[in-house]
Amino acid sequence: xxxxxxxxxxxxxxxxxxxxxxxxxxxxxxxxxxxxxxxxxxxxxxxxxxxxxxxxxxxxxxxxxxxxxxxxxxxxxxxxxxxxxxxxxxxxxxxxxxxxxxxxxxxxxxxxxxxxxxxxxxxxxxxxxxxxxxxxxxxxxxxxxxxxxxxxxxxxxxxxxxxxxxxxxxxxxxxxxxxxxxxxxxxxxxxxxxxxxxxxxxxxxxxxxxxxxxxxxxxxxxxxxxxxxxxxxxxxxxxxxxxxxxxxxxxxxxxxxxxxxxxxxxxxxxxxxxxxxxxxxxxxxxxxxxxxxxxxxxxxxxxxxxxxxxxxxxxxxxxxxxxxxxxxxxxxxxxxxxxxxxxxxxxxxxxxxxxxxxxxxxxxxxxxxxxxxxxxxxxxxxxxxxxxxxxxxxxxxxxxxxxxxxxxxxxxxxxxxxxxxxxxxxxxxxxxxxxxxxx
Length: 439
Description:
The structure is a single chain. The chain is of the alpha/beta class. It has four domains: 10-108, Rossmann fold, CATH 3.40.50.11060; 113-175; 192-372, P-loop containing nucleotide triphosphate hydrolases (Rossmann fold, 3-Layer(aba) Sandwich); 377-434, Ribosomal Protein S8, Chain: A, domain 1, CATH 3.30.1370. It is 44% helix and 19% strand. The chain has 14 helices and 13 strands. It has helices at residues 25-33, 56-69, 82-91, 101-112, 116-144, 159-190, 206-213, 271-276, 282-285, 300-317, 334-343, 362-372, 387-399, 419-434; strands spanning 10-17, 37-45, 73-76, 97-99, 193-200, 246-251, 256-261, 289-295, 322-327, 352-353, 377-384, 401-407, 410-417. The strands form three sheets. A six-stranded mixed beta sheet has the order 6-7-5-8-9-10, sandwiched between helices. Helix 11 links the parallel strand 9 (322-327) and strand 10 (352-353). Helix 1 (25-33) runs parallel beside helix 4 and helix 13 (387-399) runs antiparallel to helix 14 (419-434). 35% of the residues are buried.
């Protein structure tokens, strides 16, 4: 469904706000992430016009800007209705495309989707976007008995049901994929890994932080290697580099930890779009600990708003503790950092302040991760001096933190690990004791 472009197109940004001044920084970043070159912008402060979204006079001015710049696309940082899109199209030069904010985001998602799961989520979001437009066509066609009313295209009475059937099929396939991923997560836990998930808004520095925490390459061959993990891409400052999750191993002193990075949150997303990509956040919801990464260089009110939205999203289904990470402290001085910590204390009572880019306070973060993860269980086992017991000792070394081993007539091993691992070692040790002595 998503269009693929080989050459960069030029775009004009348009944005309407009810009050105040329009900030176009984020929509420009989104346009750049989609591969567009922004050549001009037009903003307006007024209530929404039902026919054009912006006022009629502003729509005419927009057409002049497009003609002067030769732009091939107009990108609205607003949600446009089907009739507004049609009316604006009549004002603009022939052949100029119109994208609203959410159509642009879907285009970015479509470009980034590499795995089957990501592709399904993009398709689901596009269908959810199209469904109300199909319903509008159906309603108007029935009321006015005029197929193609308002330029919305020929009315196909089966299209609406077609979309609903496709949505149901995609949901079913996504559920199957999630069952497989949940089984994989349980296998990781049974292997002694703690699961840590990175969450936060785009450009907060999650990918750079993953580089700092991780010790090796992607854990699984079938998981995407995050493009931001390439040294050439680390400082590119791109939104939505990938839709797939990236999991890497990070060894703490006493633990084996898997850290997973997911697509970043973005502001002002409609409910239907958030719902389409919720399964992407399952690795967050099912983690042992969530690191909520915040760009501390942003204005404090913007940070507060993002913290509130993030908490609403995470606490909806998440049961794991959340540790707030104030990233990019290299971009603020100590006084500003302290002011922001105090202002945000109600939402982030005990955050860790780091610079993923410069590597500041990463060891402190590792210590806090260790403290916040589920408590390890200590165990002391006395094993017979046999080949099978030596194999069990090797297994314990791979799955737990061994504090000491004594070899003599018997093997005495002291270690600590996840409760599941301790339970498995006891079972394996019990089988050793029950085995008959070789003759």
